[in-house]
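Recall the central idea of this unit: under ordinary conditions, the amino acid sequence of a chain determines the structure it adopts. In this exercise we apply that idea directly, starting from the sequence alone.
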Amino acid sequence: MNQLPSIAVCIGEKEVSLDEIDLLYQRNPFPGGQQYCLRVAAPDLSRNFRSLEVGEYLEPTEKHAKDFFWHLTSLLHQQRRERTPSLYLINSVTNLSVKPHEIVAHGVCSQIVQTKLSYE
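Accordingly, the structure predicted from this sequence is:
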């Protein structure tokens, strides 16, 4: 049985649950305002992130960012415990480090404001 990669996410200095994030690529993150760090680790990530070559991407192209989000979305769906409203949207990738056993991404995210609609 293949073990799923571990995923850890920090927003600012605070580690958050995978249940609290969602992904939405935006070339210009809106509203933005928060920084994130996301780490994916496993003995062999080549199976999960086929289209990303090993390397340091200090300014990833839109294609690299979208490929990373596409592969990560699949892993998130497999690992989430609950499906609750997300608190943060990971919007961009400003720095991407791809190694055979670890991927680390940094970028901008947005806090989602939860509102309740009233029709009175």
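Residues 12 and 35 are 5 Å apart (CA to CA).
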